[in-house]
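#structure-requests
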Amino acid sequence: MKNSKQLFVSCLLALCSSAFAQSQPAPPPAPPFGTPISYAQAKLAAEAAMRKAADIKVPNSVAVVEPSGDLVYFIRMDGAPYSATQLSQQKAWTAARYRRPTKAFFDGVEGGHPFFLSFPGIAATPGGVPIVVDGKLIGAIGVSGGNGEQDMAVAGAGVDALK
């Protein structure tokens, strides 16, 4: 009798979990690719990001890439961690290639979905943001040097400069 109750409860939990998983909204569609970001746009975004980093007093590295993930512009503040150079570029690459903010991958891993870590080249940490202009992805910005919240704020300033 005890085993049948356990089986019943297990089946009920499985059904509820399945129903809950199905009721979760689908992520928004990824924006289509557009004409790659120009050097002037990349520089404008990076400089706006650097101003924000200076305002919050967090030395950062900022990378701007085109939709392919290839580097268009890079700048590093004095005092930024050495690791920030590569991390900022990896965050930008991830945001461009997967057309999503890197925070989405971070949230997925934090939510118990470590399979995101098996995606090629993924940077599952906040600070990479797609740059979308007129509804099309023209590139991405990656920021590293602060904590996740700071990196997102700095990257957001760069994206906002192109609106």
